[in-house]
Structure formats: structure tokens, C-alpha cells
Amino acid sequence: MGNSYAGQLKTTRFEEVLHNSIEASLRSNSLVPRPIFSQLYLEAERHLSALEGGSRVDHEEEEEEGEGGLDPNCPPNPYQMLPPPEGCCTTDGFCQAGKDLRLASISNEPIDVPAGFLLVGAKSPSLPDHLLVCAVDKRFLPDDSGHNALLGFSGNCVGCGKKGFCYFTEFSNHINLKLTTQPKKQKHLKYYLVRSAQGALTKGPLICWKGSEFRGRQTPAGSCSGSLFPPLDSSGPLAASSSEPTPGANPSVPMGAQQAGPASDHPSLTAAATGPAVFNGKDSPKHQQLVKSKLSATPRPSAPGILTNSGPPKKRHKGWSPESPSAADGSYSQGGGNRAKYESASMSYMPQVGLVGPASVTFPIVASGEPVSVPDNLLKICKAKPVIFKGHGNFPYLCGNLNDVVVSPLLYTCYQNAQSISRAYEQYGASTIQPISEETQLLLTVYYLVQLAADQVPMMEDLEQIFLRSWRESHLTEIRQYQQAPPQPFPPAPSAVAPVTSAQLPWLAGLAASSCNDSVHIIECTYSLAEGLSEMFRLLIEGKLAKTNYVVIICACRNAAIDSCIAVTGKYQARILSESLLTPAEYQKEVNYELVTGKVDSLGAFFSTLCPEGDIDILLDKFHQENQGHISSSLTASSVTKSASLDVGGAPTCTSYTLEPHHIRPFQLAVAQKLLSHVCSIADSSTQNLDLGSFEKVDFLICIPPSEVTYQQTLFHVWHSGVLLELGLEKEHMTKQRVEQYVLKLDAEAQTKFKSFLQNSFQNPHTLFVLIHDHAHWDLVSTVHNLYSQSDPSVGLVDRLLNCREVKEAPNIVTLHVTSFPYALQTQHTLISPYNEIHWPASYNNGADLYPENKKYFGLSEFIESTLSGHSLPLLRYDSSFEAMVTALGKRFPRLHSAVIRTFVLVQHYAAAMMAVSGLSQMKNYTSVETLEITQNLINSPKQCPCGHGLMVLLRVPCSPLAAVAYERLAHVRARLALEQHFEIILSNPSSGITVGKHFVKQLKMWKKIEDAEWRPQTYLELEGLPCILIFSGMDPHGESLPRSLRYCDLRLINSSCLVRTALEQELGLAAYFVSSQIPLEKGVCGEALESDTEKLSSTDSEDEELATEGSTSEKKSPVKRERPCSHDSTSSPLSSKASSKSAGSALCGEFSAQPGGPSQGEQARTSQPCSPSEEGRAPGDKQRLRASQGPAVVNRHSPGLAPQPDSGLRTSQKSVQVSVTSSSSQLSSSGSSSSSTVPAAGTLVLQASHCSMTKACQQPPVVFLPKLVYDMVTSTDSSGLPKAASLLPSHSVMWASSFRPLLSKTMTSTEQSLYYRQWTVPRPSHMDYGNRAEGRVDSFHPRRLLLSGPPQIGKTGAYLQFLSILSRMLIRLTEVDVYDEEEININLREESEWHYLQLSDPWPDLELFKTLPFDYIIHDPKYEDASLICSHHQAIKSEDRGTSRKPEDLYTRRQTARMRLSKYAAYNTYHHCEQCHQYMGFHPRYQLYESTLHAFAFSYSMLGEEIQLHFIIPKSKEHHFVFSQPGGQLESMRLPLVTDKSHEYIKSPTFTPTTGRHEHGLFNLYHAMDGASHLHVLVVKEYEMAIYKKYWPNHIMLVLPSIFNSAGVGAAHFLIKELSYHNLELERSRQEELGIKPQDIWPFIVISDDSCVMWNVVDIDCGGERSSREFSWSERNVSLKYIMQHIEASPNITHYALIGMRKWSSKTGTGEVREPFSRCHVHDFIVLNVDLTQNVQYNQNRFLCDDVDFNLRVQSAGLLLCRFNRFSVMKKQIAVGGHRSFHITSKVSDNPMTIVPAQYICAPDSKHTFLAAPAQLLLEKFLQHHSHHFFPLSLKNHGHPVLLVDCYLNLGSQISVCYVSSRPHSLNISCSDFTFSGLLLYLCDSFVGASFLKKFHFLKGATLCVICQDRNSLRQTVVRLELEDEWQFRLRDEFQTANAKEDRPLFFLTGRHI
Fold first, then answer.
1. Among the four residues 304, 1024, 1414, 1556, which has the most C-beta atoms within 10 Å?
2. Angle 1406-1407-1411 (CA atoms, 0-180°, nearest 5)?
3. What's the pLDDT tens digit per position in 390-436?
């Protein structure tokens, strides 16, 4: 039955399907059975993936386990129901017993529903308006999530009461559904039925069948057989109810795939969905091919489509007769039938496959039995060495001519791996699961070989995946039992179908092979494989296996075990496989041998016979003699005297050639910042692996592979980036020799240079050394396993140097591996943590351009994209005629390595093309179209440019000896054709530099304006604009960058060993390119290639508007007769595959639409070319397509030889030309044919007159030519749309950990790919990480190792150099802080006292003199710039004296700061780590976090009226500072020293630091500030922050305030610190009195310090020797806090001072401020407080702001001394978090964060005002600061008449002056007799303020009074007690309160006016 839920797949075993298939084949009316295997396991065709993710294909009709299947696209063939029994009812809506089942009729009738059953409504196609009522067992229905429905059906008829229907088919017949399609419960059981409130049965919710969203909208199968896009017909019989979404409208559900992406919750369906894909919860083997193309891991809606899926049924069924259409002869209506798909080379179900797995072989081949003799002349006869893969069982000995066969154990290994698959499930306890049987393995292998196309090569990776899927398929039930968290209550029993037996095997294999036209031959042996092998050799010698590619030998007699082997005899396959088994070293050795021994001479002799006129060389000589002299001169003349725009000097100039300035791109900056943040996170982790705080500068060394060009290129980058100057490593005028110190070429000399680097790092522990390993995937050979260490010292060098113990252990070396191909560094044994990987970011994220750049990177994915249908110019191509020639020669010369043959053929093609271009037109037949195109553009490009700029052709010849041969030959031909001045041929070898001829060096110097006579190009980038062929040799590219003038990248010779992912991507990376995107790319030639959406291509013809250099507008708009420019004869390519013949009215006129300047530029009409030879070899289908596309209205992009009609009828205005593109992927068929069947890419455009090739170069990436094998590999995709190449083995040096692995998925990010490789690959023994065995454990990662990966040529070098710069800047920044740098305010108001210190250099104040000094009431601290000025009787302040104040909105503007370098005496926050203070901080890797104990400490305080309970958290290491009671360990007191102590070892005063919100940023690490001296430091924290502070500062003593102070301000902390300290002083006095110490000898001082004090300074005075002189000079230096504290503590008579402080540092400090060594004034920020003297002066515990000013005034009025040491200053760091900023005033009711202005902080009592969530005191202070002029209008800017403040200083804003008086008896107040006050503020006044006290003061008429009290009652009492109504007039409306709710205890105000 149809099954409903995604996790539960069907249990059909493979063998069952196999038998059914064979049965179907036998009964089918077609001769050739279709291989079942392809239905089961092979990839769906590429064109299916174009519809990937579209509407799911509703093929449940054929998926039923017991029912037959039809092609949904066949002609309609109604579902064949059994005829109903005679005499029964057949009326719609009634059951066969005649009872009504319609819901409308029986909704009110009682229905008997058995327990466990539910009533559901069934839809009948013939009664669309009715539901039929059925009773169904709920176990067979899904739950709400669409899961957990059992397979099958169980139901009852509610009409006649018949019970026990076990099949839905039977039930549907009974209730007369009369279906035309196969009955399915999912399709027809639609709704639950529920009883309404009235008891009537009504339609309830939809039954949630998984996938039903997509099911409802399909039209009946067969009704739209020819249409690719069936109509979404909502009126049809299968129409969905209106509540269902249309296909594609529900992006939250992955289309067609129930499991999407890596989030899969079933291990069997991991990210890449390798298991049998789930299709609506069913898994039919036949469905596999569809599923593969549908399992898109992202829900991406696209065009809905119905795909062909014909095939035989899985079981014999009554409804399926042999006459019905079956697999073999199903409808061909969709792009050809299934047979066609299997036979077409370019459309096989297997993506184009390449070589068999890894090359190195380490398994011995076990042999047994009698030997088999290999015939002597085997190679001669067969033309290829057969490759024999050992399979199951024993393999016989081979003897005789062993050189002519290759034996490999790879298949044996693959079989073994597949046998061990089930071990992966042992963790689930699945001991019963059997591995896949040997018979099945062999049969699957046969099926795989049968479907391989003639030009495909088998791959082990594919076979492994096939085994995996088959095994999973056959064991699904068991697997699922162990995978689902709650096991299913009723797991269905696996179907007991007998497996394939060894007796059946040969027959089944033969049956499978019978369909493949002899490409697979089966030999069955009776006794042993030996007879089969002998038989095979005999057939080979007799030539009977000429058409056979694979011979499968099976010996299935020996006691149930089978022996098998597979021989590859196809010439093409055998050659490629045997060559792929060679290691790179063996490959080079082989080629060398063939060159040295002269084996290749036969090849040369053969070539010379090809040319009809005799030997090519003879032709060349003839040509040379005939044309000597005049040709070259005329050509050079013409190239120089072109219409050139001459500059002043007369030399021709070219506008297109610009040298780009070096600048950092946004992407590079982003990557550099990512690198930096990773380094910071290593430093921030608690592992102490990197202490950034201890480094002062950065140094670096870049290690690169031994390539001279890469070396010079890196030097160039380092030189021009300016990084050396920025890091301070070099001075302005550095030499190249100096730069070379920083780049290390890993060659024989590298070791000495590296040693000096290590020595340098050892000697400079405070320098951070960054060791950059560029191109890090190169040379990963382990030193231990390096067998060549003597012969080649450079092998294994990376391991020897970068992995040496010194590098690993040095705490100041960070290693950064940089590579484009990181896969070999991402194994199970890697040293690099996944958290330390940095991947180049994607340029687009959710459609947003993250880093806008003016250049677009064109890498591998873009190249592949350009080959897809819908893009104009494929930039990847292959050359079919070249491939054909190579294949033919391969058969003729079987003993030569194909690399030799390919090289000789290609060189021959280039030679012939040069001759053809030079005038020997008969040679065109001896080259390929592609080579001719390249050569033509190469030779003609310099003529298009006034300066002679040309293009570069890169010819990649990996094997150096072959490269030398190619160079000699091409140079010879060039010389004979007199082309030496036209283009250069450069032979590049990694070990040597570039050699360029003098003529070309001169040209380069002229273009680059270089004067230096000695200059020679040293990098390829310096060859920009030089017309040349660069023969690029060396087995691997080493990161060399190529210039923008590279137009063709000819990779036709890359070695077959490149078929691992790294090697392949490395070769293709050579072409990676930046395309200028300043010119809108959609408009340019390759616009379509850059356009991601194939449906929305913009018009391509507007290049004329964008690029036109000449030609009027009218000319552009008129129809222009366009013909091809003259050098285009090479590009005989047919129409781009994106233009279907339907688009006849559209034009594809990319670069050929009105080209700049039009035909007037002297283009000549050209005669049409004869069809090129490669056209002949094209597949007939391709030719047909060509003809079809040649409608007269279509501008053909192929040669005029095929479409000579001029397209003059087309208008070229942008409006009329639209490129219509059908995304029908059936047109992809042409991608398999050569590039001549695809369009010429950017470079094929021929460069018109006066158009420099450089113009095009900046806008178009190069064209890449690949070998056919590689082309197929790169362009074919797997099920997820991932290029097949990406799923290859990632690198030669690693191997797969298991064949039981998921596939990579296209949607995987780089990070996910990395995790995939880390899980599924292991290094080989030769890999340097092999010994790092601690798999996956964190401690196996090296902590200071990072990996940066990004696409090739994208700018990684620039990014890491930028990283070095910002790392250096950050280290400097880490040693710097922003400190407040503001000059003191109100200096002009300072007293100029007549009194001076006689001695400027006095270290301490003289007590008697100091007492006579007047107190300066004025506040000078710049943070109080906005505070009210305090008047004293000394000052007569004029209003203009007050500095202009900032407007209220400026209050929060940034205060002035200066950046200061931290001294060694700084205080630090939690980010500082260094060796010295580890223990101080309590973080030490070797110790546990310091243990702490919590101690309660209580004391009573009369003012608060209750006992205060404080808590101390005291770390064990700090307990010695406290006294505990002996028996109970109760905290008794904090130890205090004696006044008489003179020790310099410690600081006497305990330091208290109140803090909030700054657990990370507060500067509590005083270790360095105290210079290591012992001190007692207590953090004062709020209760709710206790835990977080303890976490960050585990070794600090905490004083935790009571919870009632959680919302209090700093006043409360200061108040409690002072009270606690006084209480402690008394305790210590009584404790020490018992020891005989006088109470006055106990030290009474404490320090209260802000949490932002960072450094302390002292001013040194130089009086020039005269102590009494008033003239002096001074300087300031940084000192430790220890120095300052010990200096203060040593002051004589210190106990007579109440408060001691110091200046705040400012860079603007003038001589005036430091002239007087001491002042009697306000002190702030860092104060030394005498708790004994100030016993009766308290801090106001309610205060939030200005509490220090208030306290200073109280201390002064109590007659106590405040002394400021002006020669000391404190620097305060700007900290952006915490502190007073942590108080946010928000509304109490609404959640939305409205901004509340200070005016809203008070309101009238009992009003409806919004209450605020803030303390009343804070609202009061903030309101008065901003709006006090509402209360004191007369006082505004009226400094002569201040406001009188009694007992409390409140800030009334900068525009109001105040006068402070204390009401305490005996207090010192200023004389107020001179003042007339403009206002009076009474704040919470106590009993000391009486009516008589207030009557002493005089007020202006109209002055205002403000009385503030805790409640309204005390407000009235205060008015009465102070007799205020005598002098002040009050009104009822003048009463206010702070905007607090009653429970928050608002403050109340009363205002009045003076009468």
C-alpha cells in the first residue's frame, strides 16, 4: 500500500526487484530488456536536475507495492479494475450493498465505530461535491506531523457494516470509487470527520499525509503526455481542495525531498542524502533515478514537471498484462525514451565518469592454482594493455608477457570496504544486519559496466556509492529500527525473498550484459578463474573482443564461494586506467624514458606522412625562402604605423592599458578582520595559549613552494603592500635584499634561513611571529616516511620545518596555512582545529551584496555555470577533433604514454595553425578549429592596438621534458614563419625564472615606462599585454598569478593523474580571473554567464551603448549591417545551446551587435569559410540541431560558413532585442560534443581595428580548453547539483575513511565541507599528519595554527598581509588606552591668594601653613562642566565669567580623550594576561580556581535605624588580611596596620572600589600598578552582580552590598564603605588595645578609588638649584600607585587630614596648576579618606550624582582639612559600559523602549502621568540638572544672586549658581551677609534646620522656594515647623512628585514665592 511517512521506506529487497525485473523483461514485447540496475541506483539524467526542486512528481500510481506501473506520459490507459460482482449496486455514493455513504445523507445517523477506528471522508472523482464516510483503523492514518502511519490499510464499510477490508483496492471497489488510476489511500482519504455541537457529522481537518501539499494539483496521468509543463488544473477530477497550496508555493517544505540538507534527523539520510531517497515516504527502487535529481537540499521552487518513469512492475499483478507498455517501449514523448538515454554518450545516467580511485596500491595480490600465461604479442594485437581488476576469491598466477597487462587490487579493496559497511551500524546494536552479498556486488558491478558509455571510464567512487545504496535499500527496515529514537511498535517484517545464489549469478549477469551490444562480455568458468583468463586472452588474440570494453570472469562452482575478476579491454578505458595507476613520479619517469630512448620518433615520422605536400618542415623551409625579408618588415611596420593616438613624446599610446594601483579590496579587509578575530579568540580562551598582551610588535615569515616566479611575486606583494613599514620592521628606503628576509622559498637553502627565524623568535619573546605557509597543500610528505630524503632534500621540507618541535612549542609563533585547496589539511588527524579555519566569504548572502566591489571574481563555479544551458558563451570547452586524433593515435602507438601523444598532436596543431595564419591556408585541415582560433587571435591581436598590446595563451604542459620539446618545436616553426617579432614563446620552469627576448623586454619597458636598463620581467603579471605563448610546466602550479591579458588557458595536456579534487581544481584555478564590473556585465559579452537566473537574461545587445567610442546616436539606432570582423574565421561554432529553435523572433547578438564604430572601421565583408573538418566528426544529432537553429531571423554565433546571411533586418536598439531563453534542459545534449558545438567564448571575439585586446581582457575571463575526460568530469553533476569533480578523492595524500559515507552536497558551505572531510578522510602513511593520532580530540589540535582557504587568485596574499597590518595595529592598540584629557574648568575663577608656599619643592604639606589656606569652593573637575557653580564670599562672579556651557543635548557628546601607551605601572581589566599576574588574578592552568568563602558581617547604624548585614567573599589566598574568631571561624575584623609602621613592602590603606556593570572592563588588576607590593583591595559590588564579578575576578575580595541597595547609586556604596571602615577601625582598636597598642596608633585611612583609574603620574620640579626661587621647569612621568601611596602615607601629621586627593591628568596642564604643590579644594576619583576624623560626616546614601562634591562640602563645613597633591595626577580610562550609564530610565507600563525626556521625570500628585521604573532620587537629580529653572526662574544666569542650598549640594544645572551652608552647630560656613539669594532649596532637611536658622538669610522679592520631602505629610509638617508661610506664599497647584508609583516611594516637592 502507499505509505505515508517520510522516515519509513519500503522494505522491498533488491533481489526481489531483480527477479521481478527479469520476469518483466521476459514478458515484455521488446527484444532487449532494460537493465534494472539503472532504475535502481544510477544517477538521474542531467536534464532532470534542471527541474530540481520543482513540483514533486506524482507517480504513486506506479509505486504501489502490489500494483502495476504505467508511464504517466503514455497514451491514456485507464486503471483496470476487476469487474464488480454480478447484481451488486454500482451507483456513485453507495456501497456495493446499496447503502448510502454520502456525508450529506448520513451526517445525522448513528454510526457504529469500533475502538481504534476513526471516521474519515473519502473523495470520489465521480462525485466531486460529496464526501463518502468510511471507518478506518487509525494506525494506518498519519499523525499530525504526517508521520507514523503503518503501511497498508484496514477499514470497514459504514453503510452495510462489512468489516475487515485489508486492501484499499478492495475497499475502493466496494464503495464504488470507480477510479481511473491506481487506488491509494493517500489520494482518496482526504478529511477526518467530526461531530458538531449539534451532533451532526461534519467535514473536519485535512488528513496530513506527508507530501500531500504537492499531490493535489497534478492532472490525471497520461492526459498531458507530451507537455513538459502540465497545466495546474484546479477543476479536474483530482483537483485539490482550496486549502492546499499549489506546487512550489510552500517554500518551507523541501520540494520532492522529505529530508533536506544537513539537518536530516535520520542518520541514513545524511546531508548528502546518499541513502535511497525518500519520495513521499516511499522508496521504490524504480524511483531512485528520479529521486537523485530531486533531492535538492534547499527548498527551491522551480518549474513543475512530470518526468518519465516507465518501468516494469515490482510484482506480477492482475492488472498488468504483457501487452501494456513497459520499460523498454514506453512513450518517447519526452526528449527521447529511456533507451535513448542509456545509449547517448552525452546523456548517460551516470555523470561522465573518470578514473578509478586513488593511484597508490598497497595490497598484495594473492594468487592460487595453476598459472595463466599472458600471450607474447598481446599489446601489439590489442593496441592497449588490458587492466585486470582482482575481484572476489582467489586470483591465479600470471606468467609470460607480464609487461602487457596491468593487475590492480582496487576493485578487491572496494568489495572489501563494501563488506565492512555494516560495521557503521554496530553502534546501534544491529548485530543481525548482513553485509551485501558477493553475488549481489558482482551483479551490481556488471550493471554498472553495462550502462557506461563508450567514452566513459569506470570509477571506484561510483561503485562504492552503488553498493552503499543497494545495501541500505535491502536492509532499510533493520537500519531504521536502530535509527529512530522511539522504536516503532510494529516494525514491518522484512520480505523473505531469496537472495541471488551463486548458481544464478552467471545467468543473471549474462542476461544483464545481453542488452549492451557486447560492450560487456561474461565468461563463466567451471573450476577456477585461470580458465576464464586463458579464454579471455585467447579471444583477445583472435580479435573477438574488439567491441568489448569489459570482460567479467565468474567462477561460481567452488563450495558456494565465488571467484571473480574484471578485465578492462576497451582501448580507451584500458589506457586511461593503466596510466592512472602510475604515481606522478612514475609518470614522469615513463615519459622521460620514452623521450630518451627515441620511442617518440615513430610518432614524428607518422606526422610527416600526413601532409600531402610532404613533410611540414620542408613546407616551412620553402615558405621561409620565398618570403624572407619582406614579410616581417611589412608586418612590423603595419603594426606600428596603425592609427595611433600619439602622446607628446610621439610614442603611440593605448588608452586600455592601465597599471592598477595596489589597494586593498573590501573582501580582503573582511578576511583580514576575520583572521584577526580568530587570533583574538585564541588569546581570549582560558587555555593561555596566546598572550597577546605580552607582545609589542609583529614579525613574519612567508614560506612558499620552490617556484622562482611565485617567490618574486610574493616579494612584489610584500614590497608594495607597505606592510614592512607599517610593522616597523624596515625604514623608508628598503632594498630588495631586505624584503627577501621575509619570504622563504622552500628549497635546499631554506633550512638555514628558517633556523635564523627560529632563533629570532627565541630571542624576542615580546614579538609575535606569524609564520605564513602559503600554498599550503603542496608537499605534505612526512619527514618520517620520506624515502627520498637523501636524493631530494626539498621533499618533506614543510614537515621538517613547520612541524618541528620549536615551532609547535614557541608561545610567540602563530602558524597560518593559506591555500585554495585545504582538503588535505582537513582529515581525521589534522593539527588545525575546525574553529581556527577561516573561509573566504561568499559575495552574496540571501541576495545581498555583502562587500560591493568593482570587480567580479570568476572562478571554477562561474566557468562551469557558463557551460549550462541559458548562458551565452561557454568558457570551458573541449576540442573534439583533437580528442579524436589522440584516440586514433593511441590505438596506433599503444606503447607510448598518452601524455606524449597528446603533446605531439597539440604541438602539431599549433604549428599547422601558425602556418595557416601566415598564409599556408592548406594547413587549416591539419589543425583543429580551436587551435586555429587561438593562434589567429594571438597573431592578430597586436595589430588591433596602437601600442601592439596582445594576448597571452597559456599552454600547460605538466611534464618538463615534454614542455621543452614543445618549446623547441614551436620556436622553430615561429622562426621559419618569420613571426619572432609578433609574439614571444616563453618556457617556464618552476625552478628557473622567466626568459624574454630583448625585443619584447624593450616593449614591456616602454609600456610600463621603466627606465632601468637592467630590468627584466620576473613574474607573469609583468608580462601584461605581451603577445605570447606561455608554456607552463611543472607537475603542479605553485600559486603563480597570470596577467589580465591571458585570453586562452589551454589545459588539453593536463595529466590523467589530476583526477583528484585538489589537482583538478588547481589546474582550473590557473584561469581564475577578476572581471571588471564597472561596465554592467549583463550588457557585455559574457553577461549571461554572470547572470545567475537563467530565466531572466537581460538583453545583450546594448554593448554599443555602453562601450561605444565613436559613432553618433543616430548611427547606433539605425539598422546596422553587421558582419564578422576579419580575424574571426576560427570560430565555427554553432548556435549557443541556450537559444531554442522556438526563439525565432529573438536575436542573440552579443558582441556582434553594433560594435563600437560599426563596419565603418574598415571591416571587410568576408567570404564564407568551408565547413571545418571537425564539423564532420560531429554526432548526427548535433548537425541536425545546427540546421534547425539556422532560421534567417536568428543571429547565429557560428561561422559564416554555416550562416552567411547578414542579420541586417534586426534593429539594434535595446528595446527590440530580447534574448528569450527556454530553460528546457533537453538542449544540454550538445554539451557533450566539442566546443565547436558550443559558442566561442569571450576570447574568440575578434578584436576590431583600433581596439586593444586589453579592453576585452578586463571584462572577460579567459577561455579554458580541457581534455574531454576532465570536461565531462567537471561539467557533469550529481543528484544535488554538485559538479562530479567535487566528490572525487580530495587529494593524493589522503584516503577515504570508509566507503560508507554520504555524498558531498551542493548546498554545503566551506565549513560544512571541512567537517565532512574531517570526518570521512584519513591521511596516508606518507602524509605529515599521519602520526597525529589523537583523532578528533581537542588536545590533538595545535592551538596556534590557523587555516585560511579561498578560491585561487582571489587575493589571499593581500588579505593576509592586511591581517599582519591590523594585527600590528591591534597589538599597539592593546598597549594603549583612551584616557580623559580635559583641562580644568573655572580656572579664571580660582582664588589668587596672597599666600604662597615658600618652598615649591616641598614633598609634603606643612600642617600649620595649610590650615591657614582658604578652601576653594569652585569645582575644577572637567566632568562637572555642567554642574552648578558654588559661590563663596570671596568671589564676586559676573555672569560673563562663567564659561559658555554646553546645551543640554550636548551633555552626552563624546568627552575629549587622548590615546596613551600603557606604562608598566598600569591597572588592567580582565583581558590582560601575563605570566607575572596569573597568580594574582587567580587563573592558573595548574591550579583550580581559587576557593572562596562567604562571610556575613553585621553592624548597627542609627541613621538607617536597623542593623546592616554585609557579606564578604574572601578567597583563601586573602584570608591573612582578616581576623576570624578561633572556635567558629566567624569574621571579626579586617586587619589594620599601625601609623608608626615604616615598611616599604606593603601599602597600609585598604583600597575599596565600588563598581557596577564592569565585571570585564573595570580596572581591578592592580598588580602592576602596585609594582607587586602587597595591598588589600576590596571590590564593592551589588548583590545581583556578585556571581559574575566572582567569575571574572576569583582572587579578589568582594564586599557585597545588601539587596536593598540593588537599585541604589554610588552614594550608597560610598556610605557603606565609610561606615564599615569606621566600624572596623573601632573593632581593630579594641582588639589591638588588648595587645597594648594605643587606639590612636591604628591606621585610620582607606582609599576609595574609581574603577576606571588606569595610571598615575608625578610632576618633577626643577628650580635650578635655588630652593626659594619662584621660577622653575617641570616634567611629568608615569609612576606606580605604590610610589604615590607610600609617599602620601609617609606625610608628617597625616592623621590631621580628613581627605587627600590628587589632580586629574590632562595634557593641557599648565605651569599654574602645578606651581602650588598642594591645594585645599575638592578632590575626586581617587581619594584617601580618614575615617576617624570624618566619623560624624556621612556620604548621602541616596545620591546618584555629585555625591563626592556634596561630601567634600560637608567635610569642609565640619572644619576638616582637604588636601590635594597637585604634583600627583591620576589618568582615568574612558570605559563605554557600566558605571552611571547602567541606569536606564524607562516607562513602567509599556514594554516598548520610548525615550523619556527629563521634563517627564516629575508630575502633579494623583495625576494620570506615566510612571517610570527608576529610583525617585535619580529622577529628582536628573530633573533638577536639566529643568531647575522651572523652580528657580529668577536664578537663571543670575550668578550674583545664587540659590541657597542647606546641608546638601544638588546640581541645578550650569546656568544657576548655588551657595552651600550647613545647619550643623559649630560648622564653618561662608559669610552670607553679602548675598541676596534668588531661591532656597530645602532637601529632606532634618531637625538642625529651624525657623530661626532660615531667618538669617536675605531673599529677593519673588525668589522661589522648593521643599523636598519623603511624603506629603512630612511636607506639610516641614512647612509648619519652619514657619515658612510667614515669608513664602504657597499655592495648591505648586505641589509635585517624582513620576514614581506609590510602591516606589516618590519624593514630593512644594514650591512657593517669597513675599
1. 1556
2. 115
3. 999 889 999 999 999 999 999 999 998 887 765 555 554 445 567 78
Q: Is 605 left (phi over 0), alpha (psi -120 to 50) or beta?
A: alpha
Q: What angle do CA 1584, 1590, 1591 make, to 5 degrees?
A: 110
Q: What is the DSSP letter of 1327?
A: B
Closest listed residue to residue 210, CA positions, set 142, 293, 269, 297:
142
**Cα distance between residue 1659 and residue 1673, in whole Å:** 10
Q: How far apart are CA 937 and CA 943, in angstroms?
A: 10
For 1846-1884, what is each residue's pLDDT tens digit?
Answer: 999 999 999 999 999 999 999 999 988 889 999 999 999
CA distance 1265 to 1048: 8
Paired strand residues for 1523: 1533
- Residues 6+ positions from 585 with CB-CB distance below 8 Å: none
Residue 1676 neighbours by CB under 8 Å, 6+ apart: 1657, 1658, 1659, 1660, 1709, 1769
Q: How many CA atoms lie within 13 A of 1910 on its CB side?
A: 7
Distance CA 1526, CA 477 (A): 72
Three-state DSSP class for residue 816: strand
CA atoms within 13 A on the CB side of 1803: 16
| Residue 1702 DSSP SS3 | strand
Q: What percentage of the chain's residues is helix, strand, coil (to nearest 5)?
A: 35, 15, 50
Contact yes or no for 320/70 (Cβ under 8 A): no
CA nearest neighbour of 1550 among 1467, 1485, 1478, 1642? 1642
Instruction: Give backbone dihedrals phi and psi of 467, rounded to 5 degrees, phi first.
Output: -60, -40
Determine the pLDDT at residue 1146.
33
Q: pLDDT over 70 for what percent of the chain?
A: 70
User: First CA to last CA across the chain, in angstroms?
Assistant: 101
Per DSSP, 365 falls in state: -
Looking at the DSSP bridge assignments, the partners of residue 1909 are 1948
DSSP symbol at 1082: G
CA contacts within 13 A on the Cβ side of 968: 6
299-321: pLDDT as tens digits: 333 333 333 333 433 343 433 33
d(CA 543, CA 532): 16
- Describe the crossing of helices 14-27 and 438-451 by its angle, rounded to 10 degrees: 50
Beta bridge partners of 554: 524, 564
Query: One-letter amino acid identity for 185?
Result: K
Interior angle at CA 1091, CA 1086 and CA 1093, nearest 5: 145
Q: Is 1313 helix (H, G, I), strand (E, B) or coil?
A: helix
CB 898 within 8 A of CB 1291: no
Distances in whole angstroms, Cα of residue 1410 to Cα of each of 1397, 1693, 1717: 9, 12, 11
Q: How far from 524 is each of 378, 509, 1173, CA to CA, in Å? A: 22, 10, 45
Nearest-angstrom CA–CA distance, 495 and 435: 17
Secondary structure class of 189 (helix, strand, coil): strand
Q: Give dist(CA 839, CA 820) in Å, integer.
A: 10
DSSP string, 1605-1621: GTT--HHHHHHHHHHHH
Contact between residue 387 and residue 404 where contact means Cβ atoms under 8 Å apart: no
> Which pTM does this prediction carry?
0.64
Q: What are phi and psi of 1152, to 5 degrees?
A: -90, -5
Q: Are 218 and 16 in contact (CB under 8 A)?
A: no
**H/E/C letters for each residue in 1529-1580?**
CCEEEECCCECCCCCCCECCCCEEEECCCCCCCCCCECCCCCCCCECCEEEE
Which of 1726, 1830, 1754, 1697 lies closest to 1430, judged by CA? 1754
